[in-house]
Specification:
By secondary structure, the protein is an alpha/beta fold. It is about 30% helix and about 40% strand. The chain is built from 5 helices and 6 strands; from the N terminus they run H-H-H-E-E-E-H-H-E-E-E. Strands 1-2-3-5-4 form a 5-stranded mixed β-barrel. It is globular, with a radius of gyration of 14 Å. The two termini are about 20 Å apart.
Length: about 140
């Protein structure tokens, strides 16, 4: 169990909801959709997702591609960040605890992911909530 999952469960028991459920009206105002809605999108559809960063992976065999997992109150979204965007938005990639992603939804059967075109660090919306991602390089 990741730290963020543990914190989410603790907060859910205390507050009755996932932390992002409390932010959902603000996120919807910025057109960031929850994971369960994104998972209904068609292949190659423009999408906006936002979630707490739980995992960052940059395997040596991926030729510089970064894989990020974001979590919200309805589930997880796997995000693919190509090397050129990693370099352009290095600060967001490495520091965001709450990440907004503008991109293209890709789906092939049961495999779904969001290919990032632009990233936004929305960590300030979390306030003092401590969240830590698991980073693999």
């Amino acid at each position: 169990m990741t730290l963020i999952n543990f914190l989410s469960r603790c907060l859910t028991e205390f507050l009755g909801r996932h932390p992002l459920a409390l932010l959902r009206p603000r996120l919807l105002a910025q057109r960031f959709l929850p994971a369960d809605v994104l998972h209904t999108f068609q292949d190659r559809q423009f999408a906006r997702g936002c979630g707490i960063v739980t995992v960052r992976q940059r395997p040596g065999t991926a030729k510089g591609v970064l894989f990020i997992t974001i979590e919200d109150e309805s589930g997880c979204v796997n995000v693919i960040v190509w090397p050129d965007l990693v370099e352009k938005q290095r600060r967001e990639v490495l520091n965001a605890r709450l990440l907004g992603v503008y991109g293209i939804w890709q789906t092939d059967g049961k495999v779904h992911h969001l290919v990032a075109k632009r990233l936004v660090d929305l960590s300030h919306l979390l306030g003092d909530l401590d969240s830590v991602s698991r980073n693999f390089h």
